[in-house]
């Protein structure tokens, strides 16, 4: 197997489980060293250990993406361990769903603070060194819901659509420094986030998916790996759907 990312370092947020864990392990298979962050460091340690077993160096850090100071501390620990961060995958995210008439200001604010401010905090914390290196990749995980909308998900959809505007604007800002910025918009992926769906809702959902199945973490991780690779050097400012054909 080629290990084309040997010696590179990627920060993956929300890497303790689900899509973030799949991305981390896919990158480890390519030889990429990892900084794995989530709110509880020990939650990421399991993913870090699995990555080490694939022959890479992996550091688990405590990281709350909703807090700039927490992100800065995590990036300082990462820089003390590895020389520099080459890639950032903004994966951490939450859903606090409710119809708008019932959606509290707290639920709205928490969703924005994690999903959108989190992307701002983490990207800002690593961008300066990418600019200095004249090399870097940023991939943010948004959602099909940010493209199509979904009843009960105004806050989530707004936060994810915000990532699309952020991605395109930043891609234009940093392209001249050889930094690419893209988003991956998954459809419905089997993780804890979707595990609670009642059977009836799951059936209705499957009717909207041309490929007639939920996606897997590996479906998303493969596209993220590609966007971080040299093969994707000429792709920037894009939102790539990985959704079984929901958005076409
Ligand atoms: N599962 C899906 O169907 C689906 C679909 C589209 C997009 N997404 C997006 O993919 C990403 C991962 O989703 P998932 O299904 O793996 O979710 P998940 O709930 O299984 O995992 C989310 C991860 O983010 C971390 N996290 C949450 N808040 C955080 C914070 N403030 N600081 C640091 N870490 C935090 C959690 O600890 C966990 O590691 C999210 O951004 C989600 O919105 C998921």
Could you characterize what this model shows?
With 248 residues, the chain is an alpha/beta fold. It has helices spanning 18-29, 41-52, 68-81, 105-115, 117-133, 145-148, 154-174, 192-195, 199-207, 217-228, and strands at residues 9-13, 33-38, 58-62, 87-90, 136-141, 179-186, 239-242. It has one domain: 3-Layer(aba) Sandwich (Rossmann fold). Strands 3-2-1-4-5-6-7 form a seven-stranded parallel β-sheet, sandwiched between helices. The two termini are 33 Å apart. The longest helix has 21 residues, at 154-174. Bound molecules: nicotinamide-adenine-dinucleotide.
- The SSE string, one letter per element, is EHEHEHEHHEHHEHHHE
Strand content: 15-25%
Oligomer: single chain
Q: Are any ligands bound, and if so which?
A: nicotinamide-adenine-dinucleotide
Q: Which CATH architecture would you pick? A: 3-Layer(aba) Sandwich
Residue-averaged pLDDT: 96
User: Under CATH, the topology is which?
Assistant: Rossmann fold
Number of strands: 7
The first-to-last residue Cα distance is 33 Å
Can I get a quick summary?
The chain is α/β, with parallel strands linked by helices. The protein contains 10 helices and 7 strands.
Structural features:
seven-stranded parallel beta sheet; 248 residues; Rossmann fold
Secondary structure topology:
Elements: E1 9-13, H1 18-29, E2 33-38, H2 41-52, E3 58-62, H3 68-81, E4 87-90, H4 105-115, H5 117-133, E5 136-141, H6 145-148, H7 154-174, E6 179-186, H8 192-195, H9 199-207, H10 217-228, E7 239-242
Helix pairs in contact: 1-2, 1-10, 3-5, 4-7
This protein binds nicotinamide-adenine-dinucleotide.
Nicotinamide-adenine-dinucleotide is lined by residues 13-14, 16-20, 38-39, 63-66, 91-94, 114, 141, 143, 186, 188-189, 191-194.
């Amino acid at each position: 197997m080629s290990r084309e990312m040997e010696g590179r370092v990627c920060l993956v947020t929300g890497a303790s489980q689900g899509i973030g864990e799949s991305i981390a392990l896919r990158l480890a298979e390519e030889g990429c060293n990892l900084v794995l962050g989530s709110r509880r460091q020990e939650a990421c340690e399991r993913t870090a250990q699995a990555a080490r077993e694939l022959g890479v160096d992996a550091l688990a850090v405590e990281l709350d993406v909703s807090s700039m100071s927490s992100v800065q501390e995590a990036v300082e620990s990462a820089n003390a361990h590895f020389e520099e961060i080459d890639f950032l995958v903004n994966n951490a995210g939450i859903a606090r769903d409710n119809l708008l008439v019932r959606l509290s200001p707290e639920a709205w604010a928490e969703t924005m603070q994690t999903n959108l401010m989190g992307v701002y905090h983490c990207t800002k914390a690593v961008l300066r060194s990418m600019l200095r290196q004249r090399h870097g990749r940023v991939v943010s995980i948004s959602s099909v819901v940010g493209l199509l909308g979904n009843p009960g998900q105004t806050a989530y959809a707004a936060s994810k659509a915000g990532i699309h505007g952020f991605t395109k604007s930043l891609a234009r800002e940093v392209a001249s420094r050889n930094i690419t910025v893209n988003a991956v918009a998954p459809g419905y992926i089997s993780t804890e986030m979707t595990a609670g769906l009642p059977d009836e809702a799951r059936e209705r959902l499957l009717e909207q998916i041309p490929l007639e199945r939920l996606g897997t973490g590996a479906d998303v991780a493969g596209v993220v790996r590609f966007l971080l690779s040299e093969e994707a050097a000429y792709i920037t400012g894009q939102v790539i759907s990985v959704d079984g054909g929901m958005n076409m």
